[in-house]
């Protein structure tokens, strides 16, 4: 079943998450129509290879054309229209930057895998639950409702100001008419009656002025209260969700809703400002003793300007945190002289601001006391915000060609780069701009979340550990001295984040049993870990007991192994992986002989092994484990083929494959058959007829097990081999196959 087919079977709450990341950048129609073709391409590799990305883009356009031809025959007008629009988008927007569409599609596929993994988990973790709190959802609805009510109130006040203006014009006309009469005419009874009417009209004007000012005051107060409370909380919640999403958590949404709220409030405040300007205009034409306008208007205008300043300052946000395109799952880790991208948005979307706001990027603007390393940004570091580059028309700017460069110190050398000093050193990318609108000049500034600067890719794992720990432990966006005294983390939350590393990076998260094993590895055999506090040193700096590496280095090596060598098997859920030697024996001891399971090595970095259960002639149960396979050996032979072809020699017996059933009772070929590179007998068939005169060769992993051996075995145990054993092998295998196996 294709990944897209699995997505379509999800519950509605998960489908809503999928809906959030499909937009005009990569329409869902194309994902649906070209599901199998899209999933069969290597978009992640293309995201880092422009030539490959261009080929995939061209092939994507060809696929769209084929679909367009098909639907044209079916006369599906709506789909024809949408496909033409998509083709125009692909040929126009991405032709000059094909890697961009590769990044987008790669991210979409990865998010689908993460959501599928989350849907398969029995319960949500504490962090994910907190992000989906019903109280938060209720507040979001309340904010949208209040913003809409404020907008309506401001529009109603517009009508009151217009009525006041009409009333004053009538008063002005009648008053000037009387003023133009001769002195004798002014003493007539009719004129006196008119003067009484004018007095009544002036009283009405005074009442209406006070009423309009009162309504304006109420609108300003409602905006102030909304900004101070619920809207501020909404923005902080969005920033926290962004932090969690950056370390592998659920995709954060809600920025478009925030943009709508910010924009409507800005429009309402500018509308109120115009109303106050109109009152000032009316004041210059008519004033009187006790006039409320000169008393109240300056205070109201000052409050409106203050709210506009705050609204604009809060609306300038980092929409997408700094990230190297070469490592999309490791944001906020930047390597010197390697390009990174970052995107900013102004949540106040006004057409007057399009291409009028120039944003400048700098690094470590105010960190003279934090680090002894100094950096500058190379590349285009000043760009204008616009509404044309974003699919949803938001006012944004994306920096795509920034490079951090480390400066030499006054002594002519670069800063100290100890193994942990560099990866625990936090830096900040800052952005500043100025908004000039309707007579207001507002300086805006914002910063990225803290980033870690590395000079060598070998520093990436520990740098990423720092990013995880920071964003798990604090919602402070700028605590650059965090690692001077890093706080402990709740183990239950850390385990949830570790599961996210697997779901976001290799497409399948960890279940409760796997997490329990990690918990035991981190804290020992304690019964409950819900409230256990784990230190930063224990996670990333102290070696595991009896080992020469830390917990995080061990886990990161497993992630790398899965990603590069056993990804399909992991996604299918056939690798138990995280299970101790003691636990595996408990699981296997009552199973049918030949039952095996796959687990990651606890003593070798980036190794995977398999253990099977066997039964001796006296009925005793015995277990056998092979020496762990690492990335070097798996580069030569796919792991599924190893499981298929693996042979053991018990004393002088005939070589046989002891692996029959994947735990608990799945026939081996049923579990791994679709991942075999070819069927065993197809190898020889391919060369029947003696192509080029050579006999076909096959790599066959072989172990020799002695009766009294209980230690792990490797193919090297086969050397040297007794003549009798060799004779048995010769009966069943060709000399070339034997040579390939033993070499």
From TrEMBL:
InterPro entries: p53-like_TF_DNA-bd_sf (IPR008967), SH2 (IPR000980), SH2_dom_sf (IPR036860), STAT (IPR001217), STAT4_CC (IPR046991), STAT4_DBD (IPR029839), STAT4_SH2 (IPR035856), STAT_linker (IPR048988)
Keywords from the UniProt entry: Acetylation, Activator, ADP-ribosylation, Coiled coil, Cytoplasm, DNA-binding, Isopeptide bond, Methylation, Nucleus, Phosphoprotein, SH2 domain, Transcription, Transcription regulation, Ubl conjugation
The organism of origin for this protein: Thryothorus ludovicianus
Single GO molecular function: DNA binding
Location in the cell: Cytoplasm; Nucleus
PANTHER family, A to Z: SIGNAL TRANSDUCER AND ACTIVATOR OF TRANSCRIPTION
Superkingdom to which the source organism belongs: Eukaryota
GO cellular component, one term: cytoplasm
Occurrences of domain SH2 (ranges): 570-672
Main location: cytoplasm
Alphabetized Pfam families for the sequence: SH2 (PF00017), STAT_alpha (PF01017), STAT_bind (PF02864), STAT_int (PF02865), STAT_linker (PF21354)
GO biological process, one term: cell surface receptor signaling pathway via JAK-STAT
Family, similarity comment: Belongs to the transcription factor STAT family.
Protein name per Swiss-Prot or TrEMBL: Signal transducer and activator of transcription
